[in-house]
Amino acid sequence: MKLKLNEDGTAVIANGFPVYVYDDGNEAPFDAAASVKKTRDLEAALMSEKIAVNFDRSRLVAEKLSIPPDLVRAKFGDAFKLEDGKVVAFDKNGKKIYSRTRPGEVADFDEALETLIDAYPSRDSIIKKAGAGNSGGAGNGHGRSRTLTRSALAALAPAAQSAHFKSGGTVVDG
């Protein structure tokens, strides 16, 4: 694609835009601002889709949460961004979330999501209850027991276990 020039060497302008000649001989005005906007819109859509796929495929969401991936994405999706083609999570202060098990490395998707959920004040309302299936609803939390079975406690991440006890939770056999 080459810029079409007048005999005096200046660019040919049509409708306020420079005209370009394509390799096949067709000519068309080129709106650079619209092209840049369209490129940015497509990049944003692609980034959003790459992040959305992680929520849809997440083992954490499927196995430990009582709400579907689209609701998890609606609540926590803004914490994830693409950097160098990799999904990276940021805490509420805008700092990258690093792995608890691989010091110095950025947390993978599920580990970062678990960290975000652990910090979420209403986390108990979105975590599956011990022995319960996924009803798709979170309940309102009124009258809910702060008691977990040992197996339910063992299924939680260490930070969630700690949070359970710090908030007055107890553990029973069974």
Low-pLDDT residue spans: 133-145
- How much is the radius of gyration in Å? 25 Å
Mean pLDDT comes to 87
E-strand count: 8
Features:
two-stranded antiparallel sheet, alpha+beta, four-stranded antiparallel sheet
What do these coordinates show?
The chain has helices spanning 32-57, 59-64, 69-76, 109-119, 150-155, 158-166; strands at residues 2-3, 13-14, 17-21, 27-29, 80-83, 86-89, 147-149, 170-172. It is an alpha+beta fold and 174 residues long. The strands form three sheets. Strands 1, 2, 3 and 4 form a four-stranded antiparallel beta sheet that branches. A two-stranded antiparallel sheet has the order 5-6. A two-stranded parallel ribbon has the order 7-8. A hairpin with a 2-residue loop joins strand 5 (80-83) and strand 6. The model is unreliable at 133-145 (pLDDT under 50).
What would a concise description of this structure say?
By secondary structure, the protein is of the alpha+beta class. The protein has helices at 32-57, 59-64, 69-76, 109-119, 150-155, 158-166, and strands at 2-3, 13-14, 17-21, 27-29, 80-83, 86-89, 147-149, 170-172. Helix content is 38%, strand content 15%.
